[in-house]
Design goal:
The complex is a heterodimer. Chain A is mainly alpha-helical. Chain A has 7 helices and no strands. Chain A has helices at about 15-25, 30-40, 45-60, 75-110, 115-140, 145-150, 155-190. In chain B, strand 1 and strand 2 (about 105-110) form a beta hairpin. Classes of the chains: A mainly alpha, B mainly alpha.
Amino acid sequence: MTSSDRSDGMTSCAHAELIDAWVDGAVSEAERRSAEQHIAECAACRDEARELSALHELLTAERLSPEPLAVDLHAPRTRRRAGRRRAAVAAAGLVAVFGGVLAVLAPLAAAAGSAASAAATLFDFTVTLGMLGAGLLDASWRGLNVAMSSAPEPATPALLFGGAAVLGLTGLLFSLLRRGAKASARQRSRR
Amino acid sequence: MEATRATDEELVAAILEGDAALYTDLVERYRGRLINYLNRFLGNAEESEELSQEVFLRVYRALDRYNPKYRFSTWLFRVARNAAIDLIRKRRLKLVPMQRVGRDGQAREREFESEERDPYRTLRNLERRHAIGAAIDGLREEYRELIQLRHFAEMTYEEIAEFKGMPLGTVKNKLFRGRRMLKARLADYLTD
């Protein structure tokens, strides 16, 4: 036997460190064979191994077992892509409707200030809807999902920039229209 | 990419190439270990879970700065450690007293909800938890941290060696000594 018992109840066996690593499963194949051979011969190291094993169990029992992730991080990403597509289509539809209304109103605008006022209301309504849609979309995404879905997605920026450009051009068109309507109203009042 | 076969470093490379959804695999791989590691610092499961999410988010945002020379786990746990220390510093500023003042102006102990219905078992579990916590906290820093990394973050000896910048032999020896001290301090609970 290569060990001797100490007053603190711990073995002073030269193999103690090996036995500790063996219980922890952190030994090579050769070390494992050596440890197992030694354990078979040394009663003090067998006791040591038993206690160490109990310590491992005690510490393992203290570990938390977190619930599985409630959210599948893959799935919302797909949903968000679909959501973005739907939002882009909806925005495009709104812009198209607004553009159509503008096209109808434009010829009348020079003559009728009230038409321009109606167009202004419609434009505000469209923009508000767009903002609300974007706000709702962002609100449904939090933390990591938001970060993960902000990874480069080639199609999305193109849609966003396209949408922004259409909105910008529409706004420009509207302001020109409004300016025209104001000018004609001024002319009418001078007459 | 086959996530189950890919190493952490391969996953990071694939994520940086545009497959952001693979980050989920890294999260799933480390979430439990990270929460347990943080819980040793914070002593609060809910807070640890919340902080783990923040750590994953921080790491994701900084992924392009990851140095593949080191293991992903080394980096992740380092970020986690710093985040826990920051939180503890902030928390010191708003400690909740263990006593509350009743309507009659008398100080009373705060009551905590029992986790189990069996009061004796609850008491035993609580005692054991306190004993383990006290035994670990009572270790010298050099041993305590290694015990936390091995038994709660479930790092391999090689990962700990890289994390701490220590030779593998030193890690083995310190864990051996640390466990030996813990075993002596927790002797009452090892015979149950």
